[in-house]
C-alpha cells in the first residue's frame, strides 16, 4: 500500500524539474511515506512551495476607515485596523469597486474616492454579531449580475442574541446552535446612487455549532451565460461550524454545514418560500438529501472563483491541522472532509491531529482530491492539536491584459503570514496529479519587500484578494486596512549581466588557491583533490580558489558544472561558488550541500570581516530548514549564480531549472571575483563561464 501511495504522490508532483523532483518530492514525500506505519501520522505531508523567481508589483490604491468589533473582543486576532476581506467591481459598468468590512459596513471606491454605501450592522440591529469568531460579522457581499437594472445585491452576516431564540433556521441546524448565518437580499431604489436606499429581505438562515466556519463567500458565476444552468444562481460556501473535526456532518447530505449550496434568489420553492432550488442541482432527486447542495465534504470553504477562460470553479479550502488545499469544484463532488484532509486520511479523535496514508481501498469512495496544496509545517515542539497559524486564501486565475507573464496563473496565498503563491491553471484538474505551487515575491516602488513589512506587523497580515471586471488583481490586508493593485510582475535578479566574458579556465595559471597543494588542474577540470582545514579568522569556507583570469565583475552570471567527490555516505557534503570576492575575509558564496537542516548548509552567505552570515530567503530558522539540498549524489550538476550589483539581488539555479533554488538580497559588495571551493570536502568544477560587467 505504501509503495503505491508513494508512486501516486510522486505522480502528483511530476511536473517539477528533474532537480526539483529529486530534491523536493523524494526527500519531502517518499521518505515520510515509506517510513510511516499504518497507524503513524505523516510527519511532513507536502513540500514547502519553492521560489518562483517572480515578483508582484503592488501599488497602493486605498486605505479603508479604521473600525472595531462591538463589544471589544477578547480574541486579539479580531483587533485589526479594520476587517476588510474582499474587493470586487459592481457589475454595472460604472467602475465602482465594493469592499465589505466585517465590522459592519460596505464601502464603494470610485476614482480613488471611498464612502460607506451601506451600514449593514446598523440595519440588522443589536443581534448583529462581530466580536467572537474570526468569521463573525459582515462576511461577504455579492452583486446580482443584472444589478444595473434590478438593483439587487446579497450579503452574509452573523447573528446571536435574541435571534437564537426568536428566529428559526431554515435548514437543519445543531441543537446547540451558537450563531446564525444569514443571507439577505437588498434592493436599491436607485442602483446608481452612492448610498443605499431601498428594501431588504431575508433569504436564508442556518445555524452553526460554534463561532467558526459559518457562511463564507457567496457569489454568482461571472462566466455563466443566459442559457447556462447556473445563470443568476447564487453559490453559498457553508462551513462545517467547527464540528467536522469530531463528527461526520460534512458528509451528511441532509445537513447544509460543510457544503457548497446553490440556490435561486428569484425562486420560491425553497423550504421557506423565499428562494428556489435549481432543478439541475445534483441531489434534488436523492432521498433524504438537501436539494440546495451543489458539492460537499468541506471544513472551511473560504473562497471560490471561476476561471474566465476555462469557466472552471476553484475553491480555497482551509484545512484542520495539516493541509490547506485548492480544489476544482464540480457538481456533486465530495471533497472528503471529515474523512480526508488534502490527499491524506484524517482520523477523527486521533490525539496527533495528523494525517495518515490513504487506505488501499480509497478509490471506492470517489473523493475529489486537491489540484494544489501546501502543508502547515508544524513544529515538533507544538502541541499536536494546537492552531498552527495557517489559512489558505483562495484567489483567482489571472486573465487580465496588463500583466502577460501572469496569464493562466492561479494566484492565491497564506493569509496569516501574508505569503503569495501561484500554480499554473492548466495543471489544476480534478482527478489529475496536483499542480506545483511556488511562492511569489512582493515589490513596492521597485524594491523587494514582504507583506509583513508592508503592513508593519511581524505576526499577522490577514491577507485577502480581490478582482475587478477587467480581471486585474488586488491584495488586501486587515492589519493596516489597505488595498493594493497588482500593477506588474518582474523577474528576480533579472539585471543584464554585461558583455565581458571569461571562459577556458582549466589552466592552473587562471587560479589562485588558498592552499595550492590541495588542487589539481588536469585540463578541462579544476579539482579540489584534498579537503581544506579551518584557518584563523572569521568562520568561512576552509578552501577555495579565486579565478584570476579576466577582470573582477560587478553584476555577474556564473555558469558551471560542479561535482561533489566526497562519498555520499558521509554527511555534510558541500561545494561552494564564490562571487563578489574582494579579499579572504570579504566575499559572497553559494553553499551547495547535501544537507539543508543546519544554519551553515545549503544557502547564500556573506563574509564581511566576520563569521559568515546567512542571507537567503529560504532559510527557516524556527524549523531549522532551508531550500531543498542542491547536491545529493556524486554526479555532475549545472549551477548558475546571478548577482545584480545595483539591486543586490542574488539567485542560485540548479540543473537548468527556470526557478531559483535560493534567493537573497544584499548590497555589501558591488564587485569582486568568482571562485570555487568547499569547507572540508573534495569536488571539482568544469565548463566555467563568467559573464558580466567587468570592473577594471
From TrEMBL:
Question: Per its UniProt record, what Gene3D superfamilies does this chain match?
Answer: Exo-inulinase, domain 1, TolB, C-terminal domain
Signal peptide residues are: none
Q: Which SUPFAM superfamilies match?
A: Soluble quinoprotein glucose dehydrogenase
Highest taxon of the lineage: Bacteria
Pfam families the record matches = GSDH (PF07995)
Q: What InterPro entries does the database record attribute to this sequence?
A: 6-blade_b-propeller_TolB-like, Glc/Sorbosone_DH, Quinoprot_gluc/sorb_DH_b-prop
Give all residue intervals belonging to the Glucose/Sorbosone dehydrogenase domain: 90-414
Task: Indicate what this protein is called per its UniProt record.
Answer: Glucose/arabinose dehydrogenase, beta-propeller fold
Name the species this protein comes from.
Lentzea albidocapillata subsp. violacea
Amino acid at each position: 500500500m505504501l509503495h503505491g501511495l508513494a508512486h501516486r504522490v510522486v505522480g502528483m508532483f511530476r511536473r517539477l524539474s528533474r532537480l526539483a523532483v529529486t530534491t523536493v518530492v523524494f526527500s519531502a514525500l517518499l521518505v515520510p511515506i515509506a517510513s510511516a506505519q499504518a497507524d503513524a501520522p505523516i510527519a511532513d505531508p507536502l513540500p514547502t512551495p519553492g521560489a518562483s523567481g517572480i515578483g508582484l508589483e503592488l501599488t497602493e490604491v486605498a486605505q479603508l476607515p479604521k473600525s472595531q468589533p462591538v463589544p471589544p473582543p477578547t480574541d486579539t486576532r479580531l483587533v485589526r485596523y479594520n476587517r476588510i476581506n474582499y474587493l470586487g467591481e459592481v457589475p454595472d459598468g460604472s467602475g465602482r469597486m465594493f469592499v465589505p468590512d466585517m465590522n459592519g459596513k460596505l464601502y464603494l471606491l470610485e476614482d480613488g474616492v471611498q464612502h460607506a454605501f451601506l451600514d449593514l450592522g446598523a440595519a440588522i440591529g443589536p443581534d448583529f454579531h462581530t466580536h467572537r469568531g474570526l468569521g463573525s460579522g459582515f462576511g461577504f457581499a455579492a452583486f446580482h449580475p443584472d444589478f444595473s437594472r434590478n438593483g439587487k445585491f446579497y450579503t452574509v452576516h452573523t447573528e446571536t442574541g435574541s435571534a437564537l431564540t426568536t428566529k428559526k433556521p431554515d435548514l437543519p441546524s445543531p441543537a446547540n446552535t451558537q450563531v446564525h448565518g444569514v443571507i439577505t437580499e437588498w434592493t436599491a431604489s436607485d442602483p446608481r446612487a452612492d448610498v443605499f436606499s431601498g428594501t431588504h429581505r431575508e433569504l436564508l438562515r442556518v445555524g452553526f455549532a460554534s463561532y467558526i466556519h459559518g457562511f463564507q463567500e457567496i457569489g454568482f458565476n461571472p462566466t455563466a451565460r443566459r442559457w447556462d444552468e447556473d445563470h443568476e444562481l447564487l453559490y453559498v460556501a457553508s462551513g462545517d461550524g467547527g464540528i467536522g473535526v469530531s463528527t461526520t456532518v460534512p458528509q451528511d447530505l441532509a445537513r447544509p454545514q460543510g457544503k457548497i449550496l446553490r440556490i435561486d434568489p428569484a425562486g420560491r420553492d425553497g423550504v421557506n418560500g423565499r428562494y428556489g432550488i435549481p432543478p439541475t442541482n445534483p441531489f434534488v432527486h436523492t432521498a433524504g438529501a438537501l436539494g440546495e447542495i451543489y458539492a460537499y465534504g468541506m471544513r472551511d470553504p473560504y473562497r471560490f472563483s471561476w476561471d474566465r477562460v476555462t469557466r472552471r470553479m476553484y475553491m480555497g479550502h482551509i484545512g484542520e491541522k495539516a493541509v490547506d488545499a485548492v480544489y476544482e469544484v464540480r457538481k456533486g463532488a465530495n471533497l472528503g472532509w471529515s474523512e480526508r484532509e488534502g490527499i491524506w486520511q484524517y482520523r477523527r479523535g486521533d490525539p496527533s491531529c495528523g494525517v495518515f496514508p490513504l487506505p488501499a481501498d480509497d478509490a471506492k469512495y470517489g473523493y475529489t482530491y486537491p489540484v494544489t496544496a501546501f502543508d502547515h509545517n508544524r513544529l515538533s515542539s507544538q502541541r499536536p492539536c494546537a492552531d498552527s497559524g495557517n489559512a489558505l486564501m483562495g484567489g483567482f486565475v489571472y486573465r487580465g491584459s496588463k500583466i502577460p507573464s501572469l496569464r493562466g496563473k492561479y494566484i492565491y496565498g497564506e493569509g496569516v503570514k501574508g505569503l503569495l503563491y501561484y500554480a499554473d491553471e492548466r495543471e489544476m484538474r480534478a482527478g489529475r496529479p496536483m499542480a506545483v505551487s511556488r511562492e511569489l515575491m512582493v515589490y513596492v516602488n521597485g524594491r523587494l519587500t514582504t507583506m509583513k513589512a508592508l503592513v508593519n506587523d511581524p505576526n499577522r497580515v490577514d491577507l485577502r484578494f480581490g478582482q475587478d471586471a477587467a480581471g486585474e488583481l488586488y491584495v488586501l490586508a486587515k492589519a493596516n486596512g489597505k488595498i493594493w493593485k497588482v500593477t506588474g510582475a518582474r523577474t528576480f535578479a533579472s539585471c543584464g549581466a554585461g558583455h565581458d566574458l571569461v571562459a577556458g579556465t582549466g589552466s592552473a595559471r587562471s587560479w589562485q588557491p588558498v592552499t595550492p597543494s590541495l588542487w589539481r588542474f588536469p585540463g578541462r577540470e579544476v579539482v579540489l583533490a584534498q579537503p581544506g582545514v579551518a584557518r584563523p579568522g572569521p568562520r568561512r569556507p576552509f578552501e577555495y580558489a579565486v579565478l584570476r583570469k579576466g577582470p573582477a565583475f560587478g553584476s555577474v552570471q556564473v555558469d558551471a558544472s560542479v561535482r561533489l567527490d566526497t562519498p555520499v555516505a558521509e554527511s555534510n557534503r558541500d561545494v561552494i561558488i564564490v562571487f563578489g570576492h574582494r579579499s579572504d575575509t570579504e566575499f559572497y558564496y553559494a553553499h551547495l550541500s547535501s544537507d539543508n537542516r543546519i544554519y551553515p548548509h545549503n544557502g547564500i552567505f556573506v563574509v564581511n570581516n566576520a563569521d559568515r552570515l546567512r542571507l537567503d530567503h529560504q532559510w527557516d530558522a524556527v524549523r531549522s530548514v532551508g531550500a531543498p539540498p542542491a547536491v545529493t549524489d556524486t554526479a555532475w550538476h549545472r549551477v548558475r549564480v546571478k548577482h545584480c550589483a545595483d539591486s543586490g539581488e542574488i539567485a542560485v539555479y540548479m540543473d537548468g531549472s527556470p526557478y531559483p533554488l535560493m534567493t537573497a538580497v544584499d548590497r555589501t559588495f558591488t564587485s569582486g571575483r568568482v571562485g570555487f571551493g568547499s569547507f572540508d570536502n573534495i569536488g571539482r568544477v568544469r565548463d566555467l563561464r563568467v559573464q558580466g560587467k567587468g570592473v577594471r
